[in-house]
Amino acid sequence: MLVIGVSLAFLTLATVNCRPNFAYNQSVPYTNLQSESFLTHRPDEFKPLDIFMSYNETIQWMAALEAKYPDKCKVEPIGRSYEGRDINAMVINKQPSKKVFVVANMHAREWAAMTSAIYIIHELILNSNNYPEASTFQWIVVPLPNPDGYMYTRLDRLWRKNRAPQQDNATGVDLNRNFAYKWELNLNEEDDDPHKETYRGPSAFSELESRTISDYLNQNSNSIVLYVDLQTFGEYILIPWSYTKDSAPNTDFLMSVAHAGAKAIISQSYEYYVIGTLSDLAHPVSGSSMDYCYFVGVKACIIILLTNEEYEIAPSTIIPYGQIALAAVQAMAVKAGE
């Protein structure tokens, strides 16, 4: 039986539409990039886990890792954003046939999700010997699937959507309500309002960014054993479905994968993550990437809601949250790959 328990923080994540407009905290370190040459030739000395990297820094760092460790990783452009930024995946362990697909930061303000994806990339390339179980999978990690929205959070820290113009002089679509599975269900009135932060878009896959993720899922659905959408906040591990309280096929298997992740988190941090579905823990949501992933046939599709904080986190928490994310995803990959 799914664990049912709703926290105020989680309900806020799911439903809040009041978004203050303020600049980011200037006291927080946002860069240590000395020069592109330094990063290209000495990537091991760059400290991506000390800061919140910009989009350009992230792209340069990923390229530098590929240049130095071509046998371990490859940067794969998988799409472009509305404003023309590349959406890049880091492919790690190119030989294994079983794939783990990790996407973070579809909601722009969820920086802990992005930095946790960076941690996963960092560890699986630079410290791969510490993760022998991970070496049996090919990892595809997309830290910035919403690069325009992420960069805009430097001006408006709580911005959630992408930056594509919409009707009535509105801007942006909630990418995680724009996928073409049950998108047509009008479950929440505010999801149809272009001025609200959960606006689902004028049509399913109206956005370049959601189509980028869906294209990769469709092209690799037979080889992906685990899809993880890293989000914040609330300390939850969610399984399909998001749009209904009805059980998804193979729910017992999905629960076993989620429990493997929760157990790994307890071992790593002594934090307890609640397992369930979004429709049980808050309210139904249509058009999610997780539901679409499961619909196209990926074996296990999961959302992890990291942190018990809100959206602004201290740089000192980047590594602890990254450790939680990697421990959970690796354990769930092992279970899903059985």
From TrEMBL:
Keywords: Carboxypeptidase, Hydrolase, Metal-binding, Metalloprotease, Protease, Signal, Zinc. Belongs to the peptidase M14 family. It comes from the Eukaryota. One of its GO terms (cellular component) is extracellular space. This is Peptidase_M14 domain-containing protein. One of its GO terms (biological process) is proteolysis. PROSITE patterns: PEPTIDASE_M14 (PS52035). It comes from Anopheles gambiae. Pfam families: Peptidase_M14. The keyword Transferase does not apply. Residues 51-336 form the Peptidase M14 domain. One of its GO terms (molecular function) is zinc ion binding. Its cofactor is Zn(2+). InterPro entries: Peptidase_M14. SUPFAM superfamilies: Zn-dependent exopeptidases.
